[in-house]
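Bit of a strange request maybe. I'm writing a small parser for structure token strings and I need a real example to test against, not something I typed by hand. Could someone generate the tokens for this chain?
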Amino acid sequence: MAINDLTADMLTRIRNAVRNRESSVTAVSNKLNRGIVGVLEEEGYINGFEFIEDGRQGLIRIKLKYGPRGEQVINTIDRVSKCGRRVYSGVGDLPRPLQGLGICIVSTSSGVMSDRKCRTERVGGEVVALVA
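Reply from user aminoacidic:
Good idea to test on real output. This should exercise your parser:
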């Protein structure tokens, strides 16, 4: 089966794996997905990730993170900008999930980064996902 939106597929796999208390999840690799998992690791939502070469596009194995009593670190992870409707935002209009407790993942001309980093570097871009 062909997958049109690899980023939405990866976010759904993460959401389902967290809901089922899995320790890791595998998704298809592309440049945007690598940037997203880099931001998730940088912000402390996952334990880490590794690239797996499969002779084609490659895979990303994401090691999920849970709290000390097994509670979920990622409660919601939603795709904002979709294939049919791209959502762009300037630095002043970037969303603040949970009044700053969550993060917004933004694809900018300087690479994929969180909303906090976008505000410090004063850049806007395409709002990819919201994580809380």
